[in-house]
Design brief:
9 strands; elongated; homodimer; 216 residues; 42% helix; two-stranded antiparallel ribbon
Chain lengths: 216, 216
């Protein structure tokens, strides 16, 4: 395998897509899959697929394709999906509640162990068996429960202060849904989820559909 | 501008990111921005930024950078953000309710005009002034309200049937949050939003953080 530092954000994203496509191929009973198959499923070129997969050593045999199970396991291991991660979610509004019971997280090894809110009516109750704790307990609870990853679904104006508490508790990865740019130290990984981005992709397609080509 | 067909999915995604970064630069009072600035904000290489932007003609002056306002408007126009889109959302559960009041959509020109559900307790009420209609009315209402784009936040087992009704009503773009692969005709643009993907990016970072390089 080449040095992990050479892998771009876009490649990591595509690995997630390949992982899903391979899981589906495995479920459907396929043993091998070609770069053409993978490309078609994800609207990429076969050359792009081959280039991405070449980062991880020589997979596949010309004319035979890639071994589904082996490649899926390899990509899963690269993405860190072959182990389980302890997750906490902060902010149990509509979005937080939806994510707390989102089954796809658990499937990939992301186990939501704790929920936090500041609403006395919510504290002490639970969602799908996951307890809702007082947001004031973040510092102690994140440490005690060895939380790896925090999902923040808070109103924008409270997000920075809470993020700082999360960082102080030693958490190194935050997925932020609040519509603000958070500032965190360099050793903390931060992703901002903006759900308008997929809509923008679709508006691009609608806007350009009278042009010839793959988006037409 | 070169032919739109040469623009890859990843590039369109990055355009959304550049659009956000440029909006922020504009708000902060900057008139020009360098490819280094844009790259740093989005964790890309300056060469990638220049390559992406070169698709859209010659922008920027060597040593002076890109004009913020002009480039933002150009990218906005390419993404179809310089106009408004009529959106309907189907499935007013926790996630649907959260998206119905998600302010980022409106900011980019995506106006949610209608909500649909099959729960008699919800039908007839509204969220932020948007009426919740009976899911049985999809066919007539989508047409009457000239809906361009549909967001589906439904349980998986009902999604395919509803998608077919949406397609019959003439809608050409669907953003699907249901954890199933929908089948739609070739002339309908479909995006599946999977919120586990950003978590997988973070687990990749955590897993590989002891490796040297940009993800360390």
């Amino acid at each position: 395998m080449q040095n992990i530092r050479k892998i771009s954000d876009s490649t990591i994203r595509r690995l997630s897509l390949y992982y899903r496509a391979l899981s589906n191929s495995e479920k459907d009973g396929y043993f091998t899959v070609s770069s053409q198959d993978l490309a078609k499923k994800e609207r990429l070129t076969p050359a792009q697929v081959r280039k991405d997969l070449s980062f991880f050593g020589s997979f596949g045999t010309r004319g035979l394709g890639y071994p589904v199970k082996e490649l899926k396991e390899k990509i899963g291991s690269i993405l860190g999906l072959n182990r389980s991660w302890n997750v906490a979610l902060i902010g149990v509004g509509n979005l937080g509640s939806a994510l707390a019971s989102y089954k796809e997280f658990q499937k990939q090894g992301f186990h939501i162990k704790l929920l936090f809110d500041n609403d006395p009516k919510k504290i002490g109750s639970s969602i799908d068996g996951i307890p809702i704790l007082d947001i004031k307990q973040i510092g102690t609870q994140l440490k005690q429960n060895k939380i790896d990853l925090v999902i923040m679904t808070l109103p924008g104006h409270t997000a920075q202060g809470v993020a700082e508490e999360v960082v102080r508790a030693g958490v190194k990865a935050i997925l932020n849904f609040a519509p603000v740019s958070l500032k965190v130290p360099e050793d903390v990984f931060l992703r901002n989820e903006n759900m308008a981005i997929e809509l923008e992709y679709l508006s691009f397609c609608l806007k350009n559909r009278n042009n010839p080509g793959k988006h037409a």
